[in-house]
Amino acid sequence: MSTQEEKSAIELVIKELTDTLNQGRFHQIPLLYTEDGIFMPDGYKSIESRKLASTASKSVIGDNFKIAIQIKQVDVDGNYAFVTAIAEVSDGENNAPKTSRDFFTLRKNGEQWKIYRYMFNNFAPSSLS
Question: Between the CA of residue 18 and those of 66, 78, 85, what are the distances in Å?
Answer without folding.
Answer: 8, 25, 12
